Amino acid sequence: MVMTQATQHLVKHGIRPSMQRIAIMKYLMEHRTHPTVDTIYSDLHHSMPTLSRTTVYNTLQVLAQNHAVTTLSIDGHATRYDGITQPHAHFMCRHCGRIIDLPLENLPAMPRNGLKVEQVEINFTGRCDLCNQ
Amino acid sequence: MVMTQATQHLVKHGIRPSMQRIAIMKYLMEHRTHPTVDTIYSDLHHSMPTLSRTTVYNTLQVLAQNHAVTTLSIDGHATRYDGITQPHAHFMCRHCGRIIDLPLENLPAMPRNGLKVEQVEINFTGRCDLCNQ
DNA sequence: TGTAATTTTGTAACGATTACAGATTTTGGT
DNA sequence: ACCAAAATCTGTAATCGTTACAAAATTACA
Questions:
Q1: What pLDDT tens digit does each residue of chain A (133 aa) get?
Q2: Which of A97, B7, B17, B99 is 20 to 30 A from A23 via CA?
Q3: Nucleotide nearest the Cα atom of B62 (by C1')
Q4: Which residue from B minimizes the CA distance to A128?
């Protein structure tokens, strides 16, 4: 039996691969747009008419808790999700809303002693190259 | 006529110093707790019974737009505000909710060419020294 | 196959934030 | 000082993202 990449990814993170979870994980692996719950729901709803918005919320919570996806609070309005879990920074264009992945060459200085860091989020905001012309 | 620090700060950023604006700016300068709108409102409401929650929202928006304060989306639930505008990072304890200022020794690698960065937000999340024992 | 556990679904509720319109205050010219 | 215009503040209602919850559907496994 062949496992899709999405399914493998779920299993690797100890998440049971249901239809809905696979679909959402697959979506995040194929769309590098850092979508919101609503975008994911709207896009998947076409091919999965019975999918519930609540399921998208629940699933993403499960995925994030098990580190299968990353959450992004760069938006201010809605949480965004990232299928890539390797540490990297983000740039969001105030004008067009696009979110761009940025490599993290040198991680910022470690916090002071005693703090146990579990997550780092580095967000740049401004105007992107396309809007800047 | 003597100007308070808060008033000076407002004027310096081109913001007309009304009673409410001064009170909110003063609050943020004196409380280094990165409070939410609700905390600010509740605390100020005692000494300013006529203050409206909407005014706190509006005022903080004006202050942020004019770079007199900084916004923090580290919380996930409510926007938090910081009276210190010099660039620095933040650590939030998942356990007690405390937010700690962190000096930014070396700014993270600049984003790729063409992106015009207007704001940087660096958020660490984890367990603080007090909760870690 | 039957039952318990898990997952999904839809609706209702919640909390943060914004829209809006009227009231109040401030400003600037006379 | 007086008045009109502009700016600010206020309170309520609406909006929007998210969570609570309970019932329905699916899956696991004895």
A1: 678 999 999 999 999 999 999 999 999 999 999 999 999 999 999 999 999 999 999 999 999 999 999 999 999 999 999 999 999 999 999 999 999 999 987 666 667 878 999 999 999 999 999 998 7
A2: A97
A3: D8
A4: B115
